[in-house]
Amino acid sequence: MSEPAMAELYRVELPMAVGFDHPAKRRATADSLLLRLEVDGTAGLGECAPRAYVTGETSHSVAAALQQVPLDRLFARLREADPAELLARVQQEGVSGAFGLHGGNNLLCLLETALLDLLGRRLGLNGVELTPASGKPAAGPAALPVSQVLDLSLDVEEFLDTRSPFHFVKVKAADDIRRDVATVGAIRARLGDAVPIMVDANMSWSADEAPARLTALADAGADLVEEPLAKGAWAELARLRAGSGVRVVLDESVCTLHDALTAVEFRACDAFNIRVAKNGGPVSAARLIDVARHAGLGFQIGVQVAEVGPLIHAGRALAFAHPDAFTVEAGQSDRFFPETVVTPRPAVDRSANTVEPPPGPGFGLALTDRAAPWAVARYTEGAPDWAPLATTPSGGVHRDNRL
Predict the structure, then answer these.
(1) 331: which strand partners?
(2) Where is the Mandelate racemase/muconate lactonizing enzyme C-terminal domain (predicted)?
(3) Are 112 and 179 members of one domain?
């Protein structure tokens, strides 16, 4: 008789060596949930990074929702189904269709990344092969250039002196448009016309002040603006876009397929920022890329700040499966976290500011011993409920790890 299947949940709140500031949030620690599923000797590792200001979810709410997932039914399906057929169904229908699971975007992402990783390991497939892609090329690029992000914690001159080479620059907006204009002007003066510059307002501008701000930023050299107005302000976004020469990218406003179709209907943007956790997992993210292409819109592959493992490789797999993104973010886990909870450490070639495809099988990562203190609960097949785990991750300080 096989060993009981098992699920382990980790809430990882690693301190960041350097902080990251933008108009919607100042972050000094990670806040990710990791889910490790093990069935008949094969394990899959998934991650989500809930952000309340993006999808309304928190780590607590996702963990609570996970308790309601019928894991025994999921384990049985993994045992009974042909893994290749099951993977094909996940790629077509996501975990909602393939397993009958429902919930918020981050819960679905947590489950989907773990399940894809497990199936990839069973089948010997890497992350790019696991990620849906319409019209996928026979051979993708060996490496992709990544954007550099200037947040409010870093001076523009230090950024320009230390973060080259530059392929694409994103500037996190301040609460002072004069500072933003000066920042864009300094970047444009140093880098010339070849490098695109995008200013990310993170929903912080009013509809009345936005037109003048766009004009000033365009005059300084900005090419794009991301999420300038309140989330889902479709009519106002359409008017702003029509009245300016700056391309509008939507991020927080486009979390679901319905959001994407609404943005297209209103002609509210020129591009989507696709992020795996925000958009409900790799399958849903790929579906939104298809919506963008069909509507003649661009897209970028973005990240959540302070991803710690599987999300990093899932995002890169998505980027290599869809290499026509106008830019790709790599995250800064190498700068944020001197110690990681996964191996191998997700890498960025900082000499070229490029990334390579995840190594596989699956998303190619395993937990290290440093993950153990962040474990919060374990579920064993056939048990009546999850068992909480009391741990002391740092400094001997007890954490309340109840779900």
Answers:
(1) none
(2) 156-247
(3) no
Phi, psi of 75 (to 5 degrees): -60, -40
Phi, psi dihedral angles at 286 (to 5 degrees): -65, -35
Q: Quick one: 88 and 221 in the same domain?
A: no
Range of the domain at 106: 6-131+365-388
The rounded distance, in Å, linking the Cα atoms of 243 and 218 is 13
Alpha-helical segments (H) within 81-164? 83-99, 105-123, 127-130, 156-162
* In a domain? residue 1: no
Sign of CA dihedral 130, 135, 140, 146: negative
User: What span, in angstroms and rounded, lies between the C-alpha atoms of 192 and 208?
Assistant: 31
From 297, 229, 310, 228, select the one nearest 267 (Cα to Cα): 297
Backbone angles phi, psi at 398, to 5 degrees: -75, 135
pLDDT per 10-residue tile (average), the chain, 403 residues: 91 90 72 98 98 95 97 97 98 96 97 98 98 73 97 94 98 95 98 97 96 96 98 97 92 98 98 98 98 98 96 98 97 93 97 96 98 97 94 44 46
Q: Residue for token digits 């939104």?
A: 288
The runs of H, that is alpha helices, within 202-248 are: 210-220, 234-242
Dihedral pair phi/psi, residue 197, rounded to 5°? -125, 130
CATH of the domain at 30: 3.30.390.10
**Does some domain include residue 401?**
no
CA 55/CA 105 separation, integer angstroms? 7
Query: In this structure, are 287 and 228 located in the same domain?
Result: yes
Our measurement of the distance from residue 392's CA atom to the centroid of its chain's CA atoms, rounded to an integer in Å, reads 28
Q: Which residues contact 293 (CB under 8 A, 6 or more apart)?
A: 134, 299, 324
**Tokens 């290749």 appear where?**
84
Rounded Cα distance between 61 and 56, Å, is: 9
